[in-house]
Amino acid sequence: MVDPTRRILIFGGTFDPPHRAHVELPALVAERLDCDRIIYIPAAQSPLKDDAPRSSEVHRVAMLELAIRDLPQAEISTIELDRGGTSYFIDTVTELGRELGHDAELCFLIGADQVLEFQRWKDWREILERVTPVVMLRPPWTRETFEDALRREYGDDEAAQWMAWLVDTPRRDISATDIRRRLARGEPVDDLLDPVVLGYLRTH
Ligand code: ATP
After folding, report:
1. Which residues of 26-64 are buried (b: 16+ CB within 10 A; e: fewer)?
2. E strand or H helix that includes residue 9
3. Do 6 and 34 contact (CB within 8 A), yes or no?
4. Across the 204 residues of the chain, what is the mean pLDDT of every consecutive 10-residue run?
5. φ and ψ of 36, to 5 deg
6. What is the three-class DSSP state of 92?
7. Residue in 158, 160, 101, 76 with CA at minimum distance from that of residue 124
8. What residue ranges line ligand 1, CB within 6 angstroms?
C-alpha cells in the first residue's frame, strides 16, 4: 500500500480568481484519497488559453493564499510563475518529481473540461505515465454525457480508463470566467467566491 503521507495532490490552474470549487473539491478529494498535502500551482500562462490572465501574478497568488487559508494541508508552489512564459505541465511534473523525490505518488487534479482537451497538452501521454490524474466532474457534464464525450475523444478503452480516474465529488457549477463576467456587470457572486477573496478583489 502507498504510504498516505507520500501521496501528494497537485492542482494547476489560472485561479483568476480562485473560487469555491477550487477549494472545496480538492479538500474533499484529499480526504477521499488520503493525501495530506495539496499543492496549488498557479500557471504563468496557460498554453490553451488565448489571453493572459487578467489579474497579475501577485494578485492571483494573494487571492489563492486567502482562499486556502483554512486548508492546513494546502500550499502554493510558484514554480510555473518562477519559470515564466508558457506553463507546460510536463515541465512542472519534471521539476516537481525532482523536488519531491521519486517515492512520492503524485496525483494531479483536473476538471472534466480539461480532460476533454488533454490531447492538446504537450507530451500528454508522458504526463499520464508519470502522474495519476484525478478527475472532477464539472457542469455541463454529467457522468453519462462525459463518458460519451470521452469515447468520442479517446475511443472506448481510454475512455474507460478516464472514467476509472473520476472521483466522486459534487458537481459545482462555478467558473472563473462566469465570475469575471458577473463582476463586470455588477451581479452578485456571493455563492461562488469566498467573501474574503471578494473583498481583496474589490480592493485591488
Ligand atoms: P476559467 O473560467 O478562467 O477558464 P476555471 O474556473 O476553469 O477558469 P481554472 O483556474 O482554469 O478555473 O481551473 C483549474 C482547474 O480546476 C482545471 O482543471 C479546471 O477544470 C478545474 N475546475 C475549475 N472549476 C471547476 C469546477 N467548478 N468543478 C470542477 N473542476 C473545476
Report:
1. bbebbeebebebbbbbbbbebeeeeeebebebebbbebb
2. strand 7-13
3. no
4. 69 97 97 94 91 88 98 97 96 93 88 97 97 97 98 98 97 96 95 96 93
5. -105, 15
6. helix
7. 158
8. 13-16, 21, 25, 110-111, 113-114, 136, 138, 172, 174-177
